[in-house]
């Protein structure tokens, strides 16, 4: 595939959606301000350092991951419900997407390339539909030198997982503050950080269709003090609401018996007192 045909960073949402459909990914530039990037990056570094100090850090391929960011700051909850991210998630997986997980990845010098994968590999093949997708927030410039995500453009159209045979990998590059939108079927992985000292930090907001089990068991993982402060919109995004009869608590509310659309919030378990 010619370099000229590959997606470039854009502020045009319509173009980005075309890029995702054709290539399996898009780069949305300028979604986060410099102040937002700095605040998010600093917080990720603080939490990562605390986990290393407690010897609770999770490292693979030379990259440190920080899971369940919702427990580590309001800024991560706000990022998860960023309206552009949710819009692109809904465009991919359909109405009412759920946040499946939100994780930081710190690509360190000397790491190795992540194994190529597709984010919805838990779904039986073939994959005619998108069941999950990722919005990867760049907190540093994504370059081929610092380990930017690599991708096989167009691989989402194969409707299957990687099998070891693929065309030349392409690095997804873009400035800090950008968001990389990934079709859940496209083959990709974290790249090799060839720099001597610089880390590349990204936040991966993974979304799924509302009938899919989430990566993170948010009901069990979310700290009570965070849960108690959630807005109605955040509860829906995290999967606390009933959706089309799924996720009821002790059965659906009795006043839903005459409703065709059995969806909405429920306080039957006493978690929320509005």
What does the model show?
- 23% of the residues lie in helices and 18% in strands.
- By secondary structure, it is of the alpha+beta class.
- It has one domain (3-208): Sandwich (Jelly Rolls), CATH 2.60.120.620.
- Strands 1-8-5-10-4-3-2 form a 7-stranded antiparallel β-sheet.
- A hairpin with a 2-residue loop joins strand 2 and strand 3.
- The radius of gyration is 19 Å and the shape is globular.
- The N and C termini lie far apart (54 Å).
- The mean pLDDT is 94.
- Residues 251-274 are annotated as: Disordered.
- One of its GO terms (molecular function) is iron ion binding.
Give the N-terminus to C-terminus distance in angstroms.
54 Å
* Total E-strand runs: 10
In the predicted model, the low-confidence regions spanning at least 5 consecutive residues are none
Helix content: 10-25%
**Would you identify the CATH H-level superfamily?**
q2cbj1_9rhob like domain
Annotated CATH architecture: Sandwich
Strand content: 15-25%
Coarse morphology: globular
Instruction: Give the count of structural domains.
Output: 1
> Number of DSSP helices?
7
Order of helices and strands: HEHEEHHEEEEEEEHHH
CATH class category: Mainly Beta
- The structure class reads alpha+beta
Task: Give the strand order of the largest sheet, numbering strands 1, 2, ... along the chain.
Answer: 1-8-5-10-4-3-2
CATH topology: Jelly Rolls
Overall mean confidence score, pLDDT: 94
Biggest sheet descriptor: 7 strands, antiparallel
Calculate Rg over CA atoms.
Answer: 19 Å
